[in-house]
């Protein structure tokens, strides 16, 4: 009798355990600024946004999308500090001709594994 009760209790508890909610995913690490001297590489495109690599890994800027971004273009930060921070404006230009394609607003920096592959 005791064995039958244990089987019934285990059977009743199994659906409750199977439907237990998953723990929330850990929020990605974010920063307000990245220092310009720590930037080792960048990946920018209108489709994917702005990614920067530092000694701590890759970071994605969460600012609004910017049509001026492209792989062959450079960025000039307009800031009073030697950093690229949320709220800063970056000018997008051609590094050879110096033609300006406009400016974009930066958001927070979010750690990512790498930029998306195209």
Shape: globular
What distance lies between the first and last C-alpha atoms, to the nearest angstrom? 64 Å
Beta-strand portion reads: 35-45%
Largest sheet: 5 strands, antiparallel
Q: Return the average pLDDT rounded to an integer.
A: 86
Please state the structural category: mainly beta
- Percent helix, as a range, is 10-25%
Number of domains: 1
Got a strand count? 10
How are strands sequenced across the largest beta sheet? 1-10-5-4-3
Number of H- or I-type helical stretches: 1
Order of helices and strands: HEEEEEEEEEE
Looking at the chains present, what oligomeric state does this protein adopt?
single chain
Rg, alpha carbons: 24 Å
Q: Which stretches are low in confidence, meaning pLDDT under 50 for 5 or more residues running?
A: none
């Amino acid at each position: 009798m005791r064995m039958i009760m244990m089987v019934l209790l285990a059977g009743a508890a199994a659906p409750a355990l199977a439907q237990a909610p998953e723990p929330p995913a850990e929020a990605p690490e974010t920063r307000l600024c990245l220092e310009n001297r720590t930037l080792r590489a960048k990946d920018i495109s209108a489709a994917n946004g702005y990614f920067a690599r530092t000694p701590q890994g890759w970071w994605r800027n969460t600012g609004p999308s910017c049509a001026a971004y492209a792989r062959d273009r450079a960025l000039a930060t307009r800031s009073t500090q030697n950093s690229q921070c949320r709220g800063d404006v970056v000018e997008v230009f051609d590094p050879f001709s110096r033609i300006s394609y406009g400016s974009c607003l930066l958001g927070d920096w979010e750690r990512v594994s790498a930029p998306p592959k195209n």
